[in-house]
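Late entry, evening session. Most of the bench is empty. Finally got around to the prediction I had been postponing all week. Sequence below, unchanged from the version circulated by S.P.
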Amino acid sequence: MTEQFAVWTENDVEQSARWGSTSNAPVPKRIVVADDTMKADDAYRLACEGTALLWRGDFQNARQLSKAVASRIDRKPRRASDDPAKAFHLHRQTQGRRAQILGMLLIPLDADLSIPLRRAPDAQVALTEAFGITGEPSVRSLRDILGAIGAHEWHRKGVFIEALDARVHPAFGVFSPVRGEYVDLVTSAPLPSTESAFDIGTGTGVLAAVLARRGVKTVTATDQDPRALQCARTNLSRLGYGDQVNVVEADLFPEGTAPLVVCNPPWIPAKATSPIEYAVYDPAGAMLKGFLTGVAAHLDDGGEAWLILSDIAEHLGLRTRSELHDLIAAGGLTVVDRIDVKPTHAKVSDRTDALHAARARETTSLWRLRRR
């Protein structure tokens, strides 16, 4: 990717610094310098107009300003629709606009990724993990920086997985397995064999670890994302399954066949707006279609494909159950069984959530599939 630079005028001198964005946002066309004298109403107005604010004041004051701008964004009434699909797309537009406005508050970074602002945290380790050292000054949104710091804390503390009686440590940009119901499904479903298995789109490696803990002798875990591949290898080694699970880079399937092929694809067929969102949003349902189209060729005779999938897309009007069954049939597969579980995460009961109606009806399922 071509390097981009943020350009602004400060003390009547044109200055520039390398531009970075986790979501691949374009460089703001206009950047002005701001400090602790900036009022929230003015910051909100400028950001809405597309003017970014390069912060030179106190770091903690920048955080407070961002919260104040967010409150002004959220104060605007949401557009409503009785059509679930339209309501979802309106929600995504609102969230996208919110992220765009909040992304206009910029923070300077020194070449070593230290933050040259008063009361700034010592975040070099977190920012290095997330962005890598470029060896030159740069500019990023406060939103990006806080995201990296938060991800570092997730990575450091880890997420306790009851099925493993251990913690899994997600890396920056790798989806955290905080929704335990899909892990529980893989823990409880009857194994067709303990000889070998494939885990497609492994992420943190959590499902590969569960299969290994259940006694599957060899597991091949695949992913395309370099961060996920390294994260999975680190987690599996830490958990003691490094020799039992082989993590390989692949577009869906590794070579060969196995008696069990497991996949937990992104559940919502919609456009992702940042790398981390590819764990939730599957543009045009491409990964789901790819898995169902190709898995039969990678199954041993009598083997099973386990598809872990929420039906939230159905409740959002983005996919029908008959369309899912058509995809299964088109892949030369038949349904042996379906194991269902209701999610228990906090948003299920959050009536203020824009997607509450769909979340309240959501079911997560493990579909046991075989070749016809």
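Two things to note before I forget:
The first strand starts at residue 5 and ends at 10.
DSSP finds twelve helices and 15 strands in the chain.
Will write this up properly tomorrow.
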